[in-house]
Every structure is written in C-alpha cells, then in structure tokens.
Inverse folding.
C-alpha cells in the first residue's frame, strides 16, 4: 500500500493522482477517435474537462451522503475527538504532534497518546483526500454532458459511443489507485490472489474493530483484491466496447448500453466480495452501488432489446448504422470552435 507518491519536492495522493491520469488519458484517446468520426475535437476536449469535474463532484457527494461516512464528517467538523485515535507503529503512544504528522496518522498527539485529527468542517470539499462513489459521478455527468452536447449541436449518442470505452479505460487506473490507497478492499479470503494491507490501513482498522486481529498486528488478514478484480473487469469492458466501436457495427448510442449492462452486472457481483464501508440498505442486504446498478441494468437491457436509445435525450438524430472508422472523413476547417487540439471522466 502506497497512499502517497513522492515526487521529490512534494507528495501526491496516489488514488487522486492515478484517477486524474486515467481520466486525462481517456479524454485524449476519445479526442483522437472522435476526430476519425468527424466529431469536433474542441467539443470532445471541452466535454472531457466538464465530465471530469462533474464526475468528481457527483462521486464525492454520493460518498459523503451514502457511503456510511456521513457521521464521521459531522464529528470531524464539530467534535473530532469522537473519531477513533490511532497509535504509532508497534502500538506505541505518541509524545509530539510531529510524530503523528510524520506517520500520517493525524494532526496532533492527544493526552491519551493517540494521534487525532484537527477540526475540519471543509473536509467533504477536499477531494484530494479521496472518497468517491463511481455511480455518483456517472449519474451527474450523463445529464450535464447531454445538455452540453445539445447546446453545441452535437449528437449525444455519437459521443456516448466514445464514452462506452473511454469511461472504463479511465476506471482501470482509478482502481489501481484504490489498491495503492488501500480503500475498496474485499472480505477476508485465503485464496491464491488474496492480499494483506499494512497497519493503519482501512482493512487493518476494520479487522481490529471486529476483533479479528490484535491492535499490535502489523498487517490485516488476507482479503480479496477487489480493486484488481475491478481493474481487470474495466479493462475487459473497455476492450470489448472499443473493438465494437472500431468495427462500426452498432446503432448510435448502443455501445454506452453495452458498458452499462456489463458494468452493472459486474458491480452487483463484486459488491458481495467487498467489505469496506459503502452504504447498507434494506437491512444490510444491498449496498448503494447495487441499488443504483439495478435501474441502469434495466435501462440497458430495454434499450438493447429495442435497438435504439429513445426516449432520452429527446429528439435524437435518426438512427442508422455507423460507418467503419477507416472510412475517410473530410477534414473540418480550423478556427474558433473548429478542428482538433491536444488534450477527458469516473
């Protein structure tokens, strides 16, 4: 586990850094492929930046409200001492604030010898600390993106086909960032692919609180590497959608629903293997992401059976089979709002 990346003059949070790199690469690839289909390059770049912002905002909001941590944020604002304190390596008591800060366990050393955090009412807005729910970003990005494209006069479902593989491509690095940060971990497992996480990691903390290990333990019990499962699944979905996209054998918008279908099924399944706090509903039977997967799964099945994405957004272009990407496309004139440029979404 490496929650931060040292680049010499500063350190960067691993999860947030890899997530941003993944989304940026997804935008660049979507820009390149969009130009092949005659989609305005500047529109793709502008949309990518907008979707990146909306994805982060939506994912953060859903995390704060529905991931099981809302009470922690409230305590952090009004009474941080209600949050559990952390001991130094070897279960040692701290004697100075610097020890806690150097170990990354808190801002101050409390009289009890445990490291604690200072009061921080703005923590929900500090996105670099991590804490996101993918579906929150997706559900905010879709309506905002469609509104943006309609105002630009671009067919939303043409761009949706680009997103079908760009989104899971960005998720690959995002889930690897989860692995480095130690979040989104799985339940206890002694299988050949299981991993352990070090002291003070979320998995270690959960196992201590459940009395599965002693507080003096140097690592958690072996757990399912659900972050890697999700990264592999995202790669497979991205590859499938990209191959279909390049073939041109799909109706407008179809590939987005292939992504929603595959990801929803996978997400419902992998949630049964995860053990981190992510919201519990219906008496703990279902998680937030499982409940949100159900309507998206139903929407995808319905659209793919009808073979057209109506009824949303209203008045789409007449549906027709897209031409293969190798079909020559006449270059668009450059100028303000035209043509491409260098330089995408959770």
């Amino acid at each position: 586990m490496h929650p931060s990346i040292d680049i010499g003059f500063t350190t960067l949070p691993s999860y947030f850094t890899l997530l941003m790199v993944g989304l940026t690469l997804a935008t660049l690839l979507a820009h390149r492929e969009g130009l092949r289909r005659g989609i305005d390059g500047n529109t793709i770049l502008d949309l990518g930046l907008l979707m990146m912002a909306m994805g982060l905002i939506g994912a953060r909001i859903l995390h704060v409200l529905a991931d099981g941590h809302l009470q922690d944020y409230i305590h952090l604002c009004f009474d941080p001492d209600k949050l559990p304190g952390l001991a130094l390596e070897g279960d040692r008591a701290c004697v100075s604030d610097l020890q806690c800060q150097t170990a990354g366990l808190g801002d101050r050393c409390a009289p009890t010898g445990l490291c604690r955090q200072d009061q921080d009412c703005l923590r929900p807005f500090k996105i670099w600390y991590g804490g996101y729910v993918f579906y929150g970003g997706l559900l905010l990005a879709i309506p905002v993106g469609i509104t943006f494209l309609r105002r630009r006069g671009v067919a939303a479902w043409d761009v949706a086909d680009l997103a079908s593989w760009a989104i899971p491509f960005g998720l690959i690095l995002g889930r690897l960032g989860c692995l480095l940060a130690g979040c989104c971990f799985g339940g206890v497992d002694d299988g050949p692919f299981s991993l352990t996480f070090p002291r003070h990691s979320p998995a270690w903390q959960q196992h201590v609180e459940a009395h599965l290990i002693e507080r003096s333990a140097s690592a958690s019990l072996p757990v399912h590497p659900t972050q890697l499962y999700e990264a592999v699944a995202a790669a497979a979905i991205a590859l499938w959608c990209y191959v279909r996209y390049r073939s041109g054998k799909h109706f407008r918008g179809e590939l987005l629903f292939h992504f929603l279908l595959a990801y929803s099924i996978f997400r419902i399944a992998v949630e049964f293997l995860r053990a981190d706090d992510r919201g519990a509903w219906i008496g703990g039977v279902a998680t937030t992401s499982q409940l949100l997967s159900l309507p998206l799964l139903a929407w995808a099945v319905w659209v793919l059976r009808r073979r057209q994405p109506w009824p949303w957004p209203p008045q789409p272009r007449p549906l027709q089979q897209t031409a293969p990407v190798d079909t020559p496309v006449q270059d668009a004139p450059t100028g303000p709002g035209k043509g491409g440029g260098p330089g995408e979404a959770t």
